[in-house]
Amino acid sequence: MVEVSIIGGSGYTGGELLRILSNHPKVEIRYVTSRKLDGVPVTKIHKNLKGMEPLENLTFKNIPPEDIDSDIVFCATPHGVSMKIVPTLYEKDVRIIDLSGDYRFEDIEIYEKWYGIKHTGKLDAVYGLPEIHRESIKRAKLVANPGCFPTGAILLLTPLVKEDIVEENIVIDSKTGVSGAGISPTDTTHFPNINENVIPYKITSHRHTPEIEKELKKLSNRDIKVFFTPHLVPITRGILTTAHVFLREEIDKEGLIEIYRKFYRRDPFIRIFEEDIPSLTGVRGTNFCDIAIEVDKNRRAVLVSAIDNLVKGASGQGVQNMNIMMGFDEREGLWFGGLAP
Ligand SMILES: NC(=O)C1=CN([C@@H]2O[C@H](COP(=O)(O)OP(=O)(O)OC[C@H]3O[C@@H](n4cnc5c(N)ncnc54)[C@H](OP(=O)(O)O)[C@@H]3O)[C@@H](O)[C@H]2O)C=CC1
Ligand SMILES: CC(=O)N[C@@H](CCC(=O)OP(=O)(O)O)C(=O)O
């Protein structure tokens, strides 16, 4: 059995980690931290998990990172907070999976520019997108779990960028559910503001732009430029991403699907659709990323992906990374279908 702890267990991704890990046959949950809820049963906050046997006697603990000893520690904490916790864990005999953006950039200057905060210092970390970096994840001490939008976008674009058949400018449009904003309500997420509404935000300045761009650049000989715009939509979970690219050579839909199938042939969580269209109910609660591709007579390829932001976009992907780090089957604890309709 692997001992696992969660720092920041009272939030949305913390709750999802508990849901997935409590069904994982090779995991024992040790500590789940919260600053405010010391001694409170975890199922009092995460009510969907009531009665789940391994969680029944588990309570939140307000303990510092130096007191956490486990094989794996998940940090489900906000950016700016993880960078204060991870260095302490890094000194210990634990392996870390950080869900925040703090260790996703090799270049700290880019991080500081886009996040607007000073970093506490670089540590060796592997960008935790298993379909692209599986080999390095196996050996990693610290995994920087990707952002939710970058997960859907990078998986959608990698095969074409790697084949070097797309023009440099890539336009990406995403729609996200409100749980992406975390558990604390804001004016924007207040029900009358978001209900029956669609709100574009950070239209040309979202911090996931450089994250997507740096990963795609690594795969390409060209100077890839990403133009990304997110929209908040009145749903709880899910990210639907549409990318528009122009192909450098004539290639039909079947040819494109062939490229995707070949690229993702070893990846159980990638589903390539030929006829169906990805939808959010089709991935809700799952670790799948569903992908569809169309191309028009002007060499414009329109690519669509769907993920659950809290699963493949965060906690599920974190557990997938843990499975790889521990040498387990990647699907362990994650092999379940969606909730459609
Ligand atoms: N929500 C999503 O869809 C996704 C989120 N992420 C990232 O995952 C991380 C967690 O997100 P999410 O679960 O949504 O966030 P929430 O706001 O829902 O939860 C954050 C958690 O962090 C804890 N926390 C906050 N500040 C501190 C602090 N100073 N010290 C210790 N613990 C602290 C809170 O616990 P308490 O107040 O009880 O101590 C809470 O449990 C973030 O970095 C987010 O960007 C990544 C991909 C997708
Ligand atoms: C709806 C909403 O507000 N979404 C968040 C998603 C970011 C997130 O979860 O952050 P990381 O993936 O970088 O950790 C946002 O746009 O900032």
Task: Explain what this protein looks like in three dimensions.
Catalyzes the NADPH-dependent reduction of N-acetyl-5-glutamyl phosphate to yield N-acetyl-L-glutamate 5-semialdehyde. The active site is at 148. This protein is an alpha/beta fold and 341 residues long. It folds into two domains: 2-123, Rossmann fold (3-Layer(aba) Sandwich); 149-309, Dihydrodipicolinate Reductase, domain 2. The chain is built from ten helices and 13 strands. It has helices at 12-21, 42-45, 82-90, 108-115, 130-139, 148-163, 191-194, 208-219, 253-263, 311-326; strands spanning 2-7, 27-32, 72-75, 95-98, 126-127, 142-144, 169-176, 199-200, 225-232, 239-246, 270-273, 289-295, 300-307. The strands form two sheets. A seven-stranded mixed beta sheet has the order 8-9-7-10-13-12-11. Helix 5 (130-139) links the parallel strand 5 (126-127) and strand 6. It is globular, with a radius of gyration of 20 Å. The mean pLDDT is 97. NADPH dihydro-nicotinamide-adenine-dinucleotide phosphate is lined by residues 8-14, 34-37, 76-79, 81, 99-100, 147-148, 179-180, 182-184, 309-310, 313-314.
Q: What is the count of β-strands?
A: 13
- In the CATH hierarchy, the architecture of the largest domain is 2-Layer Sandwich
Radius of gyration: 20 Å
> What summary fits the major beta sheet?
7 strands, mixed
User: Could you give the order of the helices and strands?
Assistant: EHEHEHEHEHEHEHEHEEHEEEH
What's the structural domain tally? 2
Strand order of the largest sheet: 8-9-7-10-13-12-11
- Top-tier CATH class of the largest domain: Alpha Beta
Classify the fold: give the CATH topology of the largest domain: Dihydrodipicolinate Reductase, domain 2
Q: What is the number of helices?
A: 10
- Superfamily at the CATH H level of the largest domain? Dihydrodipicolinate Reductase, domain 2
- From the N-terminal CA to the C-terminal CA, the straight-line distance is 36 Å
Principal-axes shape call: globular
